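[[Local backbone shapes]]
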Amino acid sequence: MIRTFEELEEAAKSKPSRHLALAMAEEADALKAVVTAAAQGVVEPILVGQERAIREIAEKQELDISSYRVVAAEGEEQCAARAVELVREGEAAVLMKGRTPTAVIMRAILHRHGGLRGPGVLSHVSIIQIDTYPKLLIMSDPGINIAPDLKTKAAIIGNTVYVAHRLGIEQPKVAVIAAVEKVNPVAMPVTVDAALLSKMSERGQIPGCIVDGPFALDSALSRKSCETKGIQTEVGGDADILLMPDIEAANVFYKTLAHLTDAKIAAMTIGAKAPVVMSSRADSDTIKYLSILGAVSIA
């Protein structure tokens, strides 16, 4: 079981180097991240975008990209499509978003004929290391599914469980997050979804994990909170996975950790034919490097 990003880095370095296609590579933090990953032997970058602009940014940042393949493409749409094509044709094993907006690269991934869409639901998955929590925490979905219904939430859990299994967590504990622990069908319908997902898990409809909820965030992460509230649970206080109620809650949680704490974070899109490094354009090069490690580890 991988419990820290240091262990995740060692796991990624132990694998054969993977080709990574960086869509619209003219972005400083993304370039720094791929250069760091390449220096560790984790990836072999393919830079997609305007070659002159890419080399100017690299020179300004004092990054040596002289040995990297550069694939010429102009503009957001073309860069996204070309990077996706490289992965689809087997020339790269991992896709990474550079300066391309999320909506643009998602359209390229979901393209009916030229994309990377798999048979299931695509979702954004974050891996988080916080000093005050004893293990890695997986959270979804801060970037793709806006207001998932019950069926989509079950599919999102499936994606997070896949990631957890790849991290060596045999039976991950999934906490379905709401504002309260009691089911309130009138005022808080997300609590009903949480209860249904918990029952679906009990009956084997969501395999490979234990699902419980609803939980307020404190009860998902704190045994003391559960004891104080009188909650009898195997999941509460020891969650491996947090399923957030909607994109707003998940995105605020993600960006609070990214910008106001020292948490280490990796961000990926799961459910396509290859893992996608899908951190925010405003994220640091450290987050983007950790995201590469995460993507390579589950590829």
